[in-house]
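pasting for ref
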Amino acid sequence: MPNVTITVKAIAAPKGRGPGAVKGTESETWYQYWPDKITFNKGTTYDVAYTEGEYNNRPQFTVTKATPKVMAAAPAKSNGHSTADERGGVPPHVSNWVAHAIQAGLIKTPAQLCSWAQWSYQAGVGMMQRPATMPPQQPVHAGGAEDDGWPGHQP
């Protein structure tokens, strides 16, 4: 009994009580199957066992067994909250902050780039550590022209 691995590209529903048919992405061959015994899902890869026959002077392939092929799990992707990238390099927040500074026109030379990267790294490390004491709470302003505490910020 021949075997083949197919990734389902198309499924033809059975007409009445007859068989259905399935075609893989690998060739234009249709394989007939009995839906009460075997089910297929589009896009899934199967190891298929089939029989060969002939119908109206044309080859006919009937699926006798279909087993979904288990693919290796994809490596976990970073959620952006790690302290370093997968190579053990620069934490993601450093490149984000530097990129935003470049877009804002704050970085124009390689020396400025180095300074921003170092500052971003140190600031990120500082944020990951729990402070020894909490800073005093600042009063919340209801609006107006008061200083909001941000250097260079004009309300």
